[in-house]
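Quick look at the format.
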Amino acid sequence: MITALAVARLLPALLRLAARPAGRLRGLVGHLALARAGRAPGPAVLPLLALLVPLATAAFGGSVLAGVEQARQDSALREVGADARVETVDPLPGPVAERLRGLPGVRGSTSAAVFHKSDTEDGRRSLSVAAVDPEPYAALAARSGLGAFPASALEADAASRSGADSVPPDSVPPDSGRADSGRADSGGTEAGGAVLPAVASPSVADLLGDGPALLRLTGGTTVTVRVVAVRDLTPAVAGSHFLLVDRSALPAKAARPNLLLLSGERPDGDRIREVAGEAATVLVRTERLALHVDSPLQTGAERFWTAAVLTGALYAALALVLTQLRAAPERAALLARLRTMGLTRRQGRRLLVLESLPQALPAALGGVLAGWATVRLLAPGVDLTAVALRVSGTTPGGAARLTPDLPSLLLPMAAVLLLTVGIAAVQAWWTGRRGSVAELRVGDQR
């Protein structure tokens, strides 16, 4: 209502001001259209102001639906870490990993060794440590938007790698009992004497502090790490208590991957489970996404806001059509009089289009402004988590918030302007087919 009152008060004065410089331009059509729109009485402007309500409703409802969909996508991505996730307790056999990489729909993969029950030096705190390959893992984190970081921040130097085996981690058979080269494997191993750079979550960064910290990984391997970057999320670990290190700096036996993150266009979950075997835990992003859309609360809320958007669009179209039809006889008589003065049909179409835009354009812009302001003002008090996610308590990443959706703001405005121009063009075409005498008689009767 505030926006409608402001537009109603300011529009005539702004149109009259715009008509003055337009009068100095070549041609009379633009000046005539602005002058007529500026002299229009208040009741002729009010029907267009009715567009503000459906436009704001459509913008708010579209933002709700977009926020719900985005929250579901983010929740599924945070839980899986990629398009598909294959995780095992024991190291994943190399042939199985190769078969998974070659499945239809899989375009890329990133492997990691995840130690879910690693301990600090005092043994009082437990955290998840993921040993990853810096380059491909950093690319995955950047592509998924889950805690992107530069690969150089995680790469261990040559001194750190000297403590690891020279055998590539992926080439060690999972059932091999070979110990580390030149190092006994009685109770545990050390990943060299150097300090490994690490990327940590905020809680782990606070726990370890700024200096070097000793960690005991699952299986007995000990590493000394220093936190160099802090990120809230990461693809390899779904929780918020994690640490990332360079996998090449660990002993080959400890660095064998037990996690494979697959990227691709809708990978087949059943096929992945068949190849991975029963011992593997397989999560597919599309399957996790489908879990949030089958409850009565989610489907009911979506139908409610979809109906609100459609109803608002129909109301806006009806208000616009009735406004144009109401002014149709007067405009037809005007065109007939101007044709007797030499106005061509092309100029008549331009006149009707330009005359309708000064009223439709401010109303459309006002609707966008009202919708954006509504979303921004109500967003702090609107939590979409219950509407978007079926199990909100276990969702990583916090609550789903309402934010303005650009397509929901601009598409209704564009539809209103296109409908306005279309109606004016059709009216000018239809009037041009009729005789000027009949239109002049209608004007005389009026």
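Next, a different chain entirely:
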Amino acid sequence: MGRKINFLVLLVLVALALIFGTGYHTVESAGEIDKADTAWMLISSALVLLMTPGLAFFYGGMVNKKNVISTMLQSFVALGVISVLWVIVGFSLAFGDSIYGIIGNPFTYFAFRNVGAAPNPAFSSGIPFLLFAVFQLKFAIITPALITGSFAERIRFRSYILFMIFFSLFVYAPLAHMTWHPDGLFRNWGVLDYAGGTVVHMSAGFAALAGSLYLGRRNSVIEAPANIPYVVLGTGLLWFGWFGFNAGSALGANADAVIAFANTNLASATAMITWIFFDRFRNKKMSALGACISAIVGLVAITPAAGYVTMGQSIFIGFAAAIVSNLAIMLNKKSDIDDTLDVFPSHGVGGIVGMLLTGIFAGKVGLVYGETTTMGYHLLAMVIVAVFTFGLSLLLYKLVDVMLPIRVTALQEERGLDASQHGEHA
């Protein structure tokens, strides 16, 4: 039954692409695009894409050696699944004509119709609309991949693919629309999310929390990372790609991109040194794993604020996120929640810290400037995102479980997912 469902989904996607797919025309936009902006956004799109293989190494190095391939593939396969889904309907749900500010009309850009080489002033005046759509695709790819660290070592691969499709359509797309579409609910409230603290990291974090709760604890919890150098490599690729993630969100080669670029690096660097010295303060070793996790936490926290804060404020954001997430991971380890790679304490909590500090520091509308409106809406949006993402994700896990058993058997878990799901060994 599971094989038939998987094949049927693939067949439908291919058929829709063949029936509705359209070609691209470049002549119409020859005199309209800004070449510098376009060049920077092409580079940024490539940088953000690199983050997903980076995440594969980051997660793959942290799991047990019998689950390395499975964990890495869970990230890597998103490049294929979400790319096709985004072209057919995902982009339209996220950026199509607004329906009550909550979600886009699925037919506005269905199968990338009307997504061509000419700029769309509503989204980006200097670059081809197709490039904007491709840049946004890379965000849509990495978000479900981030979730996988929470249920690593115990989920069926086919069931994960089905969940990823549902999550992208029903959780990610509405959040992207509400936050980044000109008519989106959060955007019209004045909620600031420069590059995805809410849309990407909070959503992934709360979906991860729901996943770790729904799938339950592993039968045997072995805290033995397979390959720390993989984690270091993955961290370097993520840090490098994050410059496209944040600075690319300026949608042009401009001053905002430079500010976001500088803040991104500084917050991550601050979080790293804060974390390892805080560990030493707590009488723990200054570990490579801690340095890598903290660098990512700093990147997560600065993401919503990257283009809105000063470099001094970015230092504080990195510092605060490192302390809070470090303590959150400590508490998580003492709880009954088996979030395998601490996705919620890192991305969920890091995203919350970043969102709140954006409301405090952002431009001239932050709390430190005497303005309360932005902070109030940030608090409201934070609660909505948390409840919406956690509740709907929990429902989607249940739905997938009804359609395809979501958890591997005890024997498959003992053998390892590399062997039981893929017939391969690292």
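The two ends are 29 Å apart (CA to CA).

See the schema section for token definitions.
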